[in-house]
Each structure stands twice: as C-alpha cells, then as structure tokens.
Amino acid sequence: MVLAKEIMGISLLEKSSSFINPSKVLLNCNFYHKENQLWVNQGRRNLRPTKALRQSPMAAISENLIKVVPEKAVKFKVRAVVTVKNKNKEDLKETLVKHLDAFTEKIGRNVALELISTDMDPNTKEPKKSNQAVLKDWSKKSNLKTERVNYTAEFVVDSNFGTPGAITVTNKHQQEFFLESITIEGFACGPVHFPCNSWVQPKKDHPTKRIFFSNKPYLPNETPAGLIYLRERELRDLRGDGTGVRKLSDRIFDYDIYNDLGNPDKGIDFARPKLGGKDNVPYPRRCRTGRVPTDTDMSAESRVEKPNPTYVPRDEQFEESKMNDFSTGRLKAVLHNLIPSLMASISSNNHDFKGFSDIDSLYSEGLLLKLGLQDEVLKKLPLPKVVSSIKEGNLLKYDTPKILSKDRFAWLRDDEFARQAIAGVNPVTIERLQVFPPVSKLDPEIYGPQESALKEEHILGNLNGMTVQEALDANRLFIVDYHDIYLPFLDRINALDGRNAYATRTIYFLSDLGTLKPISIELSLPQTGPSSRSKRVVTPPVDATGNWMWQLAKAHVCSNDAGVHQLVNHWLRTHACLEPFILAAHRQLSAMHPIYKLLDPHMRYNLEINGLARQSLINADGVIEACFTPGRYCMEMSAAAYKNWRFDLEGLPADLIRRGIAVPDSTYPHGLKLLIEDYPYAADGLMIWAAIESWVRNYVNHYYQDSAQVCNDRELQAWYAESINVGHADLRNAEWWPTLATPEDLISILTTIIWLASAQHAALNFGQYPYGGYVPNRPPLMRRLIPDENDPEYTVFLADPQKYFFSALPSLLQATKFMAVVDTLSTHSLDEEYIGERHQPSTWTGDAEIIEAFYDFSAEIRRIEKEIDEKNADTKLRNRCGAGVLPYELLAPSSGPGVTCRGVPNSVSI
C-alpha cells in the first residue's frame, strides 16, 4: 500500500486537501475504472520509456496491475495558477479601463473559470464539471509592472472527477487580457498544464466562454467522451462562413481572393487585377477580412490604409515586443521615404547618384547630414515629434551592408557575382544547363522564335579547353534563366516611366576549384517585327568599353534576379502559398490534435505579416511596385509564376533534383550527390532538412502506426483537403498533389511545410539588406538599357560610362526607399523563436516521449550550427571562405536581434 500511495501521489493530497481522508481515496490520471475496480493504465502504445519514466517507481511495477477498491466519492480542493502577460506600454484609455476592472472585481465583474473532466457524468450524460471559481487578487495585482502576473483560483471537485481535460474562461472585465497558461495543481497525477497563449475577450464583446484544452494530445477518434463536444464546438467557433465584416477582436479564419491590392476609388491608375478565383488569374487564397466593396468596383474590397490595422484573427497578431520592433522599423521606413521625397522636390540635382561616394555617404554621413536639411526647415514639416531625437541620434544613417564589410569592391568581381547565385539571397534559381543553346517554352506565335541567341562561339573560349558538349556531359555548365518569366511583361514594363529592363539568361562554368564563372549573358526584348534585333549577347570584357557593357549587363541580371526573388521565391513560395495551409489548420485541426501541436510554432505571425504586406508592400503604388522593375505588374508576374508552382517539388531534395543540381545517390549524405559540391545553400539546407524530417518522422510514427490511422483521421484529412480544394482552389485539379494515405505521406507533407516556413524563408529573407543594401550590388530596378553603336545614347555612354552606369541604377529616392524596406525585412525581432526552440518547451505537449524527441531535435540543430561554423572557416570551401568572401550564415540556426545575416526562425514572421 505504501508503494501504491507513492505511485498515485497520495502525499500530494494529504498536503493539499482538508476535504478528504487520504487513506480512503486514490486519485490518479493514470488510472481508470473497469468492472468497479481501479486499474493502472499502462498506456496504449509500445513506446520506449523516457528517462523520467525509467527512473520512476512506475517502471518497477513492470506488467503487474495494482487493484484497488474504490470508496465513496468525496470532495477536495485543487488550485489553478493562471499566468497573465502584461502589456509593457499602455495608453491612457487602457490604464483607466484597467483600474475600472480592478474596482469592479468587488462587485462580481471578475474572471471566472470552470474545470471540465475528460469523463462523462453518468447521471447528467454531460462532462463532469467543477464549481465555478474566480481569479483571486486581480485588484491587488493590477498595478504590478512585471511582464507576467500569476493569479490563483480554487476549485472543488469530487474524487471521481477524473482527469481535467479542458477549462473554460469567462472575462467579465471591460478589456481583453493575454492568457499565457494555466496549471492545475492538486490532482494525484501531478500538475496538469493548459498552454493558452491567447487573448481572452470581454464577455460583452464575445458572450461565449473561451475553451482551453490541456496539453494532452488526442487524435479525433481517441478524444475522451467528456471533450468530444467541446472539441467540435471550438473548431466551429473558429471557422467563418464567408459572410460578415470581421472585427479586430475576432478569432475567425476564412478564405478570400486577392481583391484588396488595388484602390479603384482613387482612379484607374490604382486599380489592380483580382488574383485567384474563377475568371481571375490563379493565385492562393488569403485570410478573409470581409470589408465592404469599393464604390467603383463591387468585386474589389475596400482598403484600410496604414497606420490603421487590417484584420487578422486576434491571436495571430504580433505580440507587443514584435509590434514595437516592427513599428520602429516602419517609422524608419516612413522617414527614409519622406526625407528623400522632400529632397527630390527641393533639389533636382539629387535625383541620381553621381558616383560611388554618394552611395558611401549614406552609411558614413547619413541622409539628413548629406542633404543638409536644417532644423528650421525640419520644424516646418509635418513630421512626427520624434524626428528631432532620431536626427540627433543619427538613426537616419544607414548601416553598412555586409557585402562591403570584407571587401568594398567584391561586388564588382565576376566570381562574387557568380557566388551569390549559390550563396547569396536568392540561391534557389540556378539550374544545370542540359541543352545548349537554351530553348524558351513561350508560344512562338506570340513571343517570337524560341531559340536563344547564344552560340557556341560565345562560350567556347571559357570552357577550359572543353567543347560545349563535353562541358554539358561533365555537368560543368549552369544557367540562371529569367527569359520566360520576364519577356511576356517587358512591353508593359518598358512603357512605364523610369523603367527599362531585359529578360536575361546567364551561363556559368564550374571551375576545377569548385567556383562558378559567368561566361555569357543574353539580353532579350520583345520582338517588334520580323527583322528586329530583340536579342543580344554580352561576354566577359577584353577592353575598357567592354568592361562597362559587362557591368551594365550584370546589373540587369541582378535586377531580374531581385524581382524574381522578391515576387516569386520569397513572397509567393514562402508567404502566400503557406497561408492556405495555416488557415486550414486553424479551421480543421483541434488545438489538442498532435499535428496542430507540431505545426503551431511554424504558423506564428504568418497571417499578420501577410496582411501587412497586402496593406503596405504588395499593394497598388506600394513599396514593392515603387522599388522593383515590374512596377504595377509585380503581382501579375507573381501570379504568372504560380501557374507553374508545385507543392510536391517544394521540398529541398525534390527542388535540387528538379533543377538538375543534385542526383539521387545513396552513397552520399542525405541520399543526394550535389553537382556543385560547394553549394552553401544546398549543403547547409540538406542538413537542416534531414533534421526536420527525422523529427517529423519520430513525431508522426508516435501517433500513426499504419495507413488506416492516417486515412481515418477526419480532422487531418479535412485539413489537407481544404488546403488544396479551397486554399489552392485554382490548382486543385493538378495531378501532382501528393496523396495523404500513409504515415510516410504525412511525414513528407509536414516536412515540406516546416522547411518552407523556417529554413527556406530564412535563406531568402534575412540576407536582403546585407546583400541588397548596397544598391550597385543588387539593383532592384534598372532605368536604362545598354546602348549599342547605333543608339544616340552610345556617345553619352562613351563620354562618361560611370555617369551612364549610375543613371541606369535606381535614383536616390528609389534606392533609399528600397534600402529602408529591406533593412526592416532583414531584421530579427527580440521575441524571435528559432528552429529547435519552443515557447514552454517542457509543457507544450503532455507526451513525455515527444518532449524527449524534441530535445534530441534541438541538440541536432545545435550540432548543425557548429558544423556550419566549421565550414565557414574551411579555406577549401571557396564559396564561403576566402579573402573578401562572406561566410554563408543564412542557414545558421540561431541569431541575436537585428540585421545579422543569420538565424532560422520557426516561422514566416517578417
């Protein structure tokens, strides 16, 4: 009996309850009733015991069962510890309402809780419930300035209450509060944790009780009887029905098309095509806000302009520290946008950079100091009051981008231009060249001959004595090909004011040292007639004139690259295409579903950052249109790329094979042989991919032993089906969608989603300012074509090639706007959660073996980080180590806050 008491935690009850005689009652979450007897539950799965279990008395029992005769139910007390997160800063209204809430506590306007058992009451046929309890000392603790405040409440339950599986919360105050967690103490099974992490709205705004489930995961068909109805109700409450205008306090997840980017009420120049849906250009769905239509177009949704917030479900909004960081970034962006705008109107001489020193001064002197804006002028401008202190603190001075940190002229070198194709901010486009000359897939009747202008003579002298065919066979030729994505838009792009672009192809040769060398660039324009010269080829220079031509050609390639990077690889593939999976997860997977618990950290902030992007970045006349070559056609270009998007090829190994960069080979790590061995993005990425896949495999196999369990999981199947059929409705009939019928299918799908949200996004996002903050290295747009000998501009070019070069780059206004934006986008916030980390790491799930597996995953991520650091110091790896060569750290898992050019957050959080 002594051993049984130790196992069942009777000593806890002796200390915590004056209601019961501990010698007459046994309570434990690991026990269940059978034939009027109480048995130890040995668990439903044959899992290896955790370290904790191996050392516990339970392990000593082995397979024996302890039989205890239950006695009459008695009442006892349990305690709830409720952790509420305070706001760091409150406005006056919030402070007054907080004091009012503290006062009205005394008349019963309090926070009330109710415990709900996993068991049904045989008499009422409803879940067993505790009495209603209220939080103590709210009024006393309301003025505490700490980040977190712990409140307590006491429940009275029967000894046959069973396991607490849910808790309801009613907020009778006037304003919301952020409920971080609840822990129930006093049950013999030990503390029961409820991870909440949610805003609880006042009852006056949302009358229904909030439901929170314990951290014990359940597949749908294993849901305890007492929780079945609550599980279904909570999901029902989260789903929208396609109607109604959403309030900022709502927690409703629903779908809509991209019909909110334009503002036709401002005029035809601000109208934009709808993306997604029948009769529109195909595109993923976004989170529905339900705003009323515009006055001039009933199919277009009216806009909410900054600084007013746009709707995303309340718990998906930035937490306070993240919002503060982002607000500071936005303030910097406003100032960087506004000051150049003012100067552009004050002095026409500042439209173009005159030379490299003008750009350097943005980092050394700062924009205000350079442009000489005096305090008297500053006071007359309608700027925020904080401007003067910002000016005094030199915060308008740009940080020196990392590309300049080791070698100020590295960007000019051909080897650095090529290195950035595999270790820069957009390392996911390069492909192995399999056919020479390359061939377009565009319709020749519309876009002219599919043949390239590239000939063998253009590259033959740069192949180390090989013929072209020998170089192809030896896997030594690679291509970055933007011909087909840009050419259909060039007529319209080049008709825009201040835009002149080509559709480019760049051929690279892989040297014996493992580095790439650009050996030719093809520049294409739309064919204007049967005999028009629409294509030209530029090759590495042999003289001074050729050198400037080559630099201009590389700048046009980088401009093409910047546009595809931002609109396709970054925005479309990691932001927009993930949003439907996240919406469907909230709508179809219960918070107690193990797959929801796995995905939860990888969904954080995606909906909020996407909403902010629609409001300020990708909207009509927004930052992206202003800064990138395609201008008002940016999102149409993104939508054109979506037609060729394939979820089944978004995983790293599948993508590398598709691009011909890797071939399956079981003798190599991860089963792939890289054809460019020193390919930093791929080499580091495969390590992280393998770690994610191993973690997901352990997790999935823990809950799904066979295909039947996967197929019969109605929530899981509903999530995946809705992600495709509703979230990606325009591609729903594609044959390439993976099936979800086996645990292996599920592992592949989840690994891909987690990879895209974490490592893939990090590789594409956090290098934007370190590489693009120096505009000549990576101009986001070009304003002039390259003149040939028959052009009137050719004489101007010969007379002052540097001046012509800078007149082709973005203007001062365009450059400083762009730099401010990518500086903000490249910044890690203070509350960033990196891969291998989780909030509440020991209590996010109640499954001890999964906690242990997660710590194993975390340890592997730390090991990978050390290996990446070692590679970056290996002089044999010339694409990441050498004189003037930046180390490749974009996939190094951890980072501090700020623009660090490293760190892999769990989610698309910026």
TrEMBL record:
<keyword id="KW-0150">Chloroplast</keyword>
<dbReference type="Pfam" id="PF01477">
    <property type="entry name" value="PLAT"/>
</dbReference>
<comment type="similarity">
    <text>Belongs to the lipoxygenase family.</text>
</comment>
<dbReference type="InterPro" id="IPR000907">
    <property type="entry name" value="LipOase"/>
</dbReference>
<dbReference type="GO" id="GO:0034440">
    <property type="term" value="P:lipid oxidation"/>
</dbReference>
<protein>
    <recommendedName>
        <fullName>Lipoxygenase</fullName>
        <ecNumber>1.13.11.-</ecNumber>
    </recommendedName>
</protein>
<keyword id="KW-0560">Oxidoreductase</keyword>
<keyword id="KW-0809">Transit peptide</keyword>
<dbReference type="GO" id="GO:0006633">
    <property type="term" value="P:fatty acid biosynthetic process"/>
</dbReference>
<dbReference type="InterPro" id="IPR027433">
    <property type="entry name" value="Lipoxygenase_dom_3"/>
</dbReference>
<dbReference type="InterPro" id="IPR020833">
    <property type="entry name" value="LipOase_Fe_BS"/>
</dbReference>
<dbReference type="InterPro" id="IPR020834">
    <property type="entry name" value="LipOase_CS"/>
</dbReference>
<dbReference type="GO" id="GO:0016165">
    <property type="term" value="F:linoleate 13S-lipoxygenase activity"/>
</dbReference>
<dbReference type="InterPro" id="IPR013819">
    <property type="entry name" value="LipOase_C"/>
</dbReference>
<keyword id="KW-0275">Fatty acid biosynthesis</keyword>
<keyword id="KW-0223">Dioxygenase</keyword>
<keyword id="KW-0479">Metal-binding</keyword>
<keyword id="KW-0934">Plastid</keyword>
<dbReference type="InterPro" id="IPR001024">
    <property type="entry name" value="PLAT/LH2_dom"/>
</dbReference>
<dbReference type="InterPro" id="IPR036226">
    <property type="entry name" value="LipOase_C_sf"/>
</dbReference>
<dbReference type="InterPro" id="IPR042057">
    <property type="entry name" value="Lipoxy_PLAT/LH2"/>
</dbReference>
<keyword id="KW-0443">Lipid metabolism</keyword>
<dbReference type="GO" id="GO:0009507">
    <property type="term" value="C:chloroplast"/>
</dbReference>
<keyword id="KW-0276">Fatty acid metabolism</keyword>
<comment type="function">
    <text>Plant lipoxygenase may be involved in a number of diverse aspects of plant physiology including growth and development, pest resistance, and senescence or responses to wounding.</text>
</comment>
<feature type="domain" description="Lipoxygenase">
    <location>
        <begin position="217"/>
        <end position="910"/>
    </location>
</feature>
<dbReference type="GO" id="GO:0031408">
    <property type="term" value="P:oxylipin biosynthetic process"/>
</dbReference>
<comment type="pathway">
    <text>Lipid metabolism; oxylipin biosynthesis.</text>
</comment>
<dbReference type="Pfam" id="PF00305">
    <property type="entry name" value="Lipoxygenase"/>
</dbReference>
<keyword id="KW-0444">Lipid biosynthesis</keyword>
<feature type="region of interest" description="Disordered">
    <location>
        <begin position="279"/>
        <end position="312"/>
    </location>
</feature>
<comment type="subunit">
    <text>Monomer.</text>
</comment>
<feature type="domain" description="PLAT">
    <location>
        <begin position="78"/>
        <end position="214"/>
    </location>
</feature>
<keyword id="KW-0408">Iron</keyword>
<dbReference type="InterPro" id="IPR036392">
    <property type="entry name" value="PLAT/LH2_dom_sf"/>
</dbReference>
<keyword id="KW-0925">Oxylipin biosynthesis</keyword>
<dbReference type="InterPro" id="IPR001246">
    <property type="entry name" value="LipOase_plant"/>
</dbReference>
<dbReference type="GO" id="GO:0046872">
    <property type="term" value="F:metal ion binding"/>
</dbReference>
